[in-house]
Amino acid sequence: MTIAAQIAKHLREVLYGGNWTFVNLSKTLEDVTWEHAITKVQSFNTIAALTYHIGYYVTAILGVMKNEPLTSSDKFSFDHPPIHSDDDWRNMLHKNKAEADELITLIEQFPDAQLDAVFADEKYGTYYRNFHGLIEHTHYHMGQIVIIKKMLTEN
Predict the structure, then answer these.
(1) Rounded distance, CA 50 to CA 39, Å?
(2) 3 and 107 in contact (C-beta within 8 Å)?
(3) Which among 37, 97, 115, 147 is least surrounded, fewest beta carbons within 10 Å?
(4) C-alpha to C-alpha distance for 115 and 119, rounded to whole angstroms
(5) Residue 77: which residues within 8 A CB-CB, separation 6 or more?
(6) Mean pLDDT on 86-103
(7) pTM of this prediction?
(8) Which pLDDT band holds residue 21 (cuts at 50, 70, 90)?
């Protein structure tokens, strides 16, 4: 298995299961209602904002992988579209899944020799750094979602 394919497997596992932590984003979000997704708990981001934020960076990396210019900006990374219904919430989840699946496929096919190539601009480091950064970022925010979800359901 190539290094890139192993990275893709690791991303798939944090999203869908099979990783060392036995926690994955899909399972964590499957029973979150749209009302809980938009409920503010103390000063934390909402589950919807965190979910959008994770997907925002998937979208950004996916665009670069498809030879599009990098146009994302951290300042917009929590600005999710309004969620007023279960359909709105499920549409966000569906978009995130579709883009993540496409990105996983592209990473699987990525040549190992290019992993140390510059990602979009030198200030962003290499493809390897961005792929692993996305995995770490997803684990980090998934942990926040797990805690917020517990706070919402235990009250």
Answers:
(1) 12
(2) no
(3) 147
(4) 9
(5) 52, 53, 56, 57
(6) 98
(7) 0.96
(8) confident
Q: Report the distance separating Cα 61 and Cα 54, nearest Å.
A: 11
Q: Is residue 17's pLDDT more than 90?
A: yes
Distance CA 14, CA 21 (A): 9
Q: Which two tokens stand for residue 57?
A: 């960076």
Q: What are phi and psi of 116, to 5 degrees?
A: -95, 10
Give the Cα separation of 54 and 72 in Å (integer). 13
The predicted structure's pLDDT at residue 6: 98
Which token pair is 97?
């899944």
DSSP-derived secondary structure for the chain: --HHHHHHHHHHHHHHS-STTS--HHHHHTT--HHHHT---TTSPPHHHHHHHHHHHHHHHHHHHTT------GGGTT-PPP--SHHHHHHHHHHHHHHHHHHHHHHHHS-GGGTTSB-SSGGG-BHHHHHHHHHHHHHHHHHHHHHHHHHHHH-
> Which tops the pLDDT comparison, 79 or 155?
79
Q: Where do the domains of the chain lie, and which CATH numbers do they carry?
A: 3-154 (1.20.120.450)
> Which residue type, as a one-letter code, is found at position 142?
M
Q: Which two tokens stand for residue 51?
A: 């979910």
